[in-house]
Amino acid sequence: MSFGFENVKPIHARGTDAAEVIEVIRTKAMRGAGIEEDPVREVTQYWTFDGKLIGEEDSFTYSAERK
Question: Which of 16, 36, 37, 44 has a Cα-to-Cα distance from 63 of 20 to 30 A?
Answer without folding.
Answer: 16
